[in-house]
């Protein structure tokens, strides 16, 4: 039984950020009362092994929905094979001024300029330690907005050190358009310096904790073919374990005539689908099966999840599709795997 079509009009009548918070609280209540299990469609899991990790299925929740790790159990109960939380920064920060989240329902899209609003890595780690979830958990780390770009590496190292013991894998977010100059970290010497430092630290932490936690880099959909090839080459050179393609786009071509087209922030949902799939396909050529791709961006149907897998992804993640389609999207994708 899919209750979301009944709830969606009420949620969409609220300001998007309020609706986001209300939905998470409703999901928590549903999980705690057993309602999630009653409404969740039955499906057979199809396990996959990626980055040495055993996923119960290849569908995950993308970072951004649960920035602080406050709703891990509630989200995991929806049937995901893995859940990614964050983006989290070393210190708590409020994010950008409101309003900072906009629905574009005519295009099944969302614009956000949240700006890594979160309660800091220590809060997130405490939440992870309290949750019951035993599945694959990704922790997505970023830099504080007021950390100069030259000092960004230290912020990522703090996130890596603090998250290492409780994460199944750690995502390095260098592609959000909502933190000034962050995307610069995808270029030239900046990315080399960052990847080198993180890889070195990962190997130190592996010895310290006697376990290997894979490192994944999340990239933008707005890269040229040359930039995709360059980043792919560096991921191989520094033995990074995986790549997420992609984050949100700053391109407004797909919604150029919409009243919200000029709102600053990252555009997600249907308009980013083709760009994201293109980056997945380009990366697949560059990486040639040497490291796995996790595809995110514009998955609103099971067929679109299959497109990403066909383009070369090993796993897929959803976020905006969940806002528009609800739990039915999870059921449809799991059925199609």
Describe it.
This protein is an alpha/beta fold. The chain has twelve helices and 13 strands. It has helices at 4-12, 16-33, 35-39, 72-76, 121-130, 152-163, 188-209, 225-237, 273-287, 302-311, 320-325, 327-336, and strands spanning 48-50, 53-55, 59-61, 82-88, 101-104, 109-112, 136-141, 169-173, 215-219, 242-245, 266-269, 293-296, 315-318. Strands 3-4-7-8-9-10-12-13 form an eight-stranded parallel beta barrel, surrounded by five helices. α6 runs parallel beside α7, α8 crosses α9 and α10 packs across α12 (327-336). The longest helix has 22 residues, at 188-209. The chain starts with a helix and ends with a helix.
Set down the secondary structure blueprint.
Blueprint: H1 4-12, H2 16-33, H3 35-39, E1 48-50, E2 53-55, E3 59-61, H4 72-76, E4 82-88, E5 101-104, E6 109-112, H5 121-130, E7 136-141, H6 152-163, E8 169-173, H7 188-209, E9 215-219, H8 225-237, E10 242-245, E11 266-269, H9 273-287, E12 293-296, H10 302-311, E13 315-318, H11 320-325, H12 327-336
Parallel strand pairs: 3-4, 3-13, 4-7, 7-8, 8-9, 9-10, 10-12, 12-13
Antiparallel strand pairs: 1-2, 5-6, 6-11
């Amino acid at each position: 039984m899919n209750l979301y079509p009944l709830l969606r009009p009420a949620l969409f009548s609220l300001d998007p950020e309020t609706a986001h918070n209300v939905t998470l609280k409703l999901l928590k209540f549903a999980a705690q009362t057993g309602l999630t299990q009653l409404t969740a469609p039955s499906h057979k899991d199809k396990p996959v092994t990626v980055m040495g990790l055993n996923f119960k299925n290849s569908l995950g929740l993308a970072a951004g929905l649960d920035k602080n790790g406050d709703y891990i159990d509630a989200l995991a109960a929806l049937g995901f094979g893995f859940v990614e939380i964050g983006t989290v920064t070393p210190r708590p920060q409020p994010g950008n001024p409101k309003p900072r989240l906009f629905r574009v329902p005519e295009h099944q899209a969302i614009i956000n300029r949240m700006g890594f609003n979160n309660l800091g890595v220590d809060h997130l780690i405490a939440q992870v330690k309290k949750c019951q979830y035993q599945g694959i958990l990704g922790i997505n780390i970023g830099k504080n907005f007021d950390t100069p770009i030259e000092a960004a590496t230290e912020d990522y190292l703090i996130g890596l050190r603090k998250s290492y013991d409780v994460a199944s894998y750690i995502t390095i977010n260098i592609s959000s358009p909502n933190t000034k100059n962050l995307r610069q970290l995808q270029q030239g010497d900046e990315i080399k310096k960052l990847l080198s430092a993180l890889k070195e630290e990962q190997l130190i932490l592996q010895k310290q904790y006697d376990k290997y936690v894979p490192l994944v880099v999340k990239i933008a959909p707005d890269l040229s073919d040359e930039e995709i090839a360059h980043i792919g080459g560096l991921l191989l050179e520094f033995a990074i374990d995986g790549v997420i393609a992609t984050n949100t786009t700053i391109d407004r071509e797909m919604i150029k005539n919409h009243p919200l087209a000029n709102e600053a922030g990252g555009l997600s949902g249907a308009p980013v689908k083709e760009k994201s799939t293109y980056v997945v396909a380009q990366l697949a050529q560059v990486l040639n099966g040497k490291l796995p791709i996790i595809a995110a961006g514009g998955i609103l149907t099971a067929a679109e999840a299959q497109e990403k897998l066909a383009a070369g992804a090993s796993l897929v993640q959803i976020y905006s599709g969940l806002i528009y389609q609800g739990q039915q999207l999870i059921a449809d994708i799991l059925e199609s795997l």
